[in-house]
Known about the structure:
The structure holds 2 protein chains of 2 kinds.
Chain A: H1 3-13, E1 18-24, H2 30-43, E2 47-51, H3 62-73, H4 78-91, E3 97-101, H5 103-109, H6 111-121, E4 125-128, H7 137-145, E5 149-150, E6 152-154, H8 160-168, E7 174-177, H9 190-203, E8 208-211, H10 217-224, E9 229-232, H11 234-246, H12 258-273
Parallel strand pairs in A: 1-2, 1-9, 2-3, 3-4, 4-5, 6-7, 7-8, 8-9
Helix pairs in contact in A: 2-4, 2-12, 3-11, 6-7, 10-12, 11-12
Chain B: E1 20-21, E2 24-28, H1 34-48, H2 51-65, E3 71-73, H3 75-81, E4 85-89, H4 100-113, E5 118-123, H5 127-139, E6 143-148, H6 149-154, H7 156-164, E7 168-172, H8 179-192, E8 197-199, H9 210-218, H10 220-233, E9 239-244, H11 248-254, E10 264-272, H12 283-286, E11 288-292, E12 294-299, H13 324-331, E13 336-341, H14 342-356, H15 362-375, E14 383-387, H16 396-402
Parallel strand pairs in B: 4-14, 5-6, 5-8, 6-7, 9-10, 9-14, 10-13
Antiparallel strand pairs in B: 1-2, 2-12, 3-4, 11-12
Amino acid sequence: MKRLAKTFESLRSQKRKALITFVMGGDPDVGTSLSILKALPSCGADIIEIGMPFSDPMADGPVIQLAGERALAGGCTIAKIFDMVVAFRKENSSTPIVLMGYANPVYRYGVDKFAHDCADFGVDGVIVVDLPPEEDQIVREALGNQFVDMIRLIAPTTDEARLQTILDGASGFLYYVSIAGITGAAKANLDSVRAHAALIREKTDLPLAVGFGIKTPNDAQEMSAFGDAVVVGSSIVEKIAQLREKSDRLGQDAPEMAAVLDHIRALSGALKASA
Amino acid sequence: MQSEPKRPNSYRKGPDESGHFGPYGGRFVAETLMPLILEVEKAYLEARDDIKFWVEFDKYAKHYIGRPSPLYHAEKATQHFGGAQIYFKRDELNHTGAHKINHCIGQILVAKRMGKTRIIAETGAGQHGVATATVCALFDLPCTIFMGETDVQRQAPNVFRMKLLGAEVRSVTSGAGTLKDAMNEAMRDWVSNVHDTYYLIGTVAGPHPFPMMVRDFQSVIGKEVREQFADRYGGLPDTLVACIGGGSNALGLFHPFLDDPDVKLIGVEAGGHGVASGEHAASLTGGTPGILHGMSSYFLQDEHGQIKDAHSISAGLDYPGIGPEHAWLFDHKRVEYVSVTDEEALDAFQLCAKLEGIIPALEPAHAFAHVAKIAGSLPSDHHIVMNLCGRGDKDIFTVADKLGVKL
Lengths: 275, 407
Ligand SMILES: Cc1ncc(COP(=O)(O)O)c(C=O)c1O
């Protein structure tokens, strides 16, 4: 069974919601970023989303834009993210990894090679923000051939007809972008998320993750009611941004790292408390 | 492209139903924007088939923009180079001083049909921003213009114009603070305000249907040239020349001639310090295929797919990409794409002013620099039409600075 399916099944049987943590790959530098990755599962991250930095992140707010700039300045590439995944997998074979980014670097890397390397190195799913169903066939099929899931996004603007189009090619889980906006924006209106999530639930058994605008343990707890997972990004990345001020290439036991990891523990704790 | 693409029956039929020109174009946007993009497409296709829409477009084109713009036989330039006959399509005489107003009138009418109540746009030189602010004043809609910080500085007169017209100008500090960054920020605003906002894109770029729609509105240029040339001189011109930022003035001129194989079409990209220097804005002659700003096209990028900053003396050409239809025409070799350096454009800018008493914008100065290169070696019965798509008032500060003159 695939790692993603196994994770959701096990969490469902424990009646728990998954915490998906987003970090930008290579932020603030590749060494520190790897230390953070390795520490995430023990702090309560159930699934790890790694951002692939892009020069023009059109769906991201300032926090993740700056993280991408730091990562690129530190020389991060898709190849280096795969190296990080390999190092991570030496210690952890159970926590699913999802790569998230924009189409151009993936195309430039080579779609088939990318899919192949995802499978070889232990990546379980891929989200490409600027590939809506109308344009994702090439990447989706390449990933599918390697048994890697293409995670599709659903937005508040998605109507019922489009929802069906999205579901028809979806695998792994569905990612409900809870606000019509960019990452780091204000939290979504709960009633709106409830209504959309209910509609999605009616049409599919795939696990549902809710993301965008979820920052605090309290947000995570509230939003977790509507799906199987919550995604937290900007508020983690904001804490990582502060590491930069202190020192490069931090190990996971470095005292500075505590602020990042305590935040993950608090998010995880909030989800477990509501289980 | 590995192999030569198959020649289509017509070059004027694109894009296909999904918005692609061969492998280019498409709709590479976040799901949040997709429903809205489909709505824009629907609204435009309905408008395109509605005679009333075009009656209204023509009314504004004639009485507000001042169309048709003249086709002027530049006899002194012709004499100077001593070869081909040179004609200027005088789109710099349009209201607001450039061709951008053509697609602004068209798009604001579409936005009105859609019931949108707020307009946003990106701008480089500020010409598209001024044209957008102008139609927003005319149609009484609030508008926000995104402009890179660098451009805000080098195009200060246009920033003030936009403000006079009632627009809010937002200075964008990310990246190099030029056109690509302004476009990123406009996209971010759009995705956050889909319910009431229309993104009035300033060139034949972005997700489908924008490249097609902007081209259709700008095609008024080429249609007029066809008629004006046939009326006065008979037949068709031999060569058309236009500068290329995103490619709207060029495609507007070229599109009605794409299926006339005897008409040679030349697009002039901004060569900056020279394509070999790496500091330029020549996406076709110096770039590679990629995906950005909702479209598949040619872009300046590194080996990891990170987009590079463009460089051009002309803020309106300072964009590391190009509209997808140009990418397709490039692969098919239907249009020849060349580049002209900052220096050559600067010389052409001054030459045009002195020869013809017309101060061109730095953008069409690139086109004129190429005309200068080819005209002399062509026979006197060869007719070149160049798109003089903007006037140069906005550029006098940049040019003075380059020439070491303090204003
Ligand atoms: C006068 C003028 N010409 C050309 C351009 C470049 O745009 P396009 O290639 O879309 O015509 C601009 C852009 O600002 C402009 O102001």
